[in-house]
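From the thread on structure requests for the teaching lab: each student submitted one protein with a one-line request. Submission from student K.M.:

"Model Major facilitator superfamily (MFS) profile domain-containing protein from Penicillium antarcticum, tokens only."
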Amino acid sequence: MSPNPSDIETTKKVVDDITHSTLSKKKNGMDKAPDGGFRAWLITAGTACIFFSTLGFANSFGIFEQYYLSHQLKDESADKVAWIGSLAAFLQFAAGALGGPLFDRYGAWKVIRPAAIMYLFAMMMTSLCKQYWQFMLAQGILLGTSMGLLQFPAMAAVIQHFDKNIAAALGAAVSGSSIGGVVIPIALSKMLNSTSLGFGWSVRIIGFVVTPLLAFSCLAVKSRLQPRKTKFFIASAFKTPKFSLLVAAIFFMFLGFFTPLFYIPTYAVSRGVDTTLASYLLAILNAASTFGRVIPGVLADKFGRLNVLSMGGILTGIIIFCMNQAKSTPALIVYSIAFGFWSGTIISGATAAFSIVIPDPRTIGTYLGTGMGVASLASLIGPPVNGALLNKYGGFSEISIFSGAMCVLGGFLTLATKTTTSQGLLGRV
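Reply posted by the TA:
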């Protein structure tokens, strides 16, 4: 039986379409991610250096909060001082709404290098500040914005180079912030409280330490895919239920989980702990967070990214509920370790979860930056609300109840996000 000419033509057309599609994807750099290799792990290392330098410094704000309230800003209220750190925390994520699309359109180099220079400039300007408005401008606005322009292109570059191991790679990258959160608070506390260096030179020395790390990152972090030329922002992303639910979940987690990072040293001092030791609690917390970012990241690739993120949010909330019950130095150390480990899943876990809702690899930066940018509104609100609660009630019970409830709510909203996926609530996603 001779083949039908129309069938031959149809088959040829299908083969041509597949070949053309494959060649087009390779031309645009959209072939399968290497999921490892020297280049991918070099980019992960460069991203870890960025997080060491930026989020590691931001995680030290508890040191600054306690120092400002007893030195330069001793006449200001706790909630007013907290606005400096909360504004920086907000902008480091909100700037991702700009940094993400810029990465998709221009690649990492044109975004990261200028941002690195701006970040170092902001640190040096912070070292010269003496008045409240100066701290808000340098440490709040300039430092926060430059952090966002550094972090989101770097995270997007990591996601482009991994597939099955995205959560593990992001956990390793973001763990740089935990290591920075160990080294920087200890160094700052030692220089501020036990030497004659003073505030200015203490901050400048940290700036000199992170300079070579940022220089390495500027050379290492690169985009794998060709730039996209479509719309700068993708507003239609919020029409997708799973994207909107995930953003809402992260919003409520952010509303609560910054509390111990901002207030654990102040709370410890109120319990009679020595000022220097109270500052070391942040280092202990961030050391535990290193394992909390890496281990859950490995588990997330195996058991589901939304599963691990929801568990991290719920357990972090429960731990925050217990904050006011840590009354002795040993209890505070154990509390810091527990909080550090489980809260570590939120930043790296949230970033990895976005890989589930991104339809096109070339829009990674835009989806990630937009989603985290909207969620970051919570980091602007949370710490000042806690400061206002502290001023009104004079204790930490109300703070722990409010913040813990927000994290738990975020965890359950993550579970709700699972219902919008093809695998459903019980799926491994």
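TA comment: Residues 10-30 have pLDDT under 50 and may be disordered. The two ends are 49 Å apart (CA to CA).
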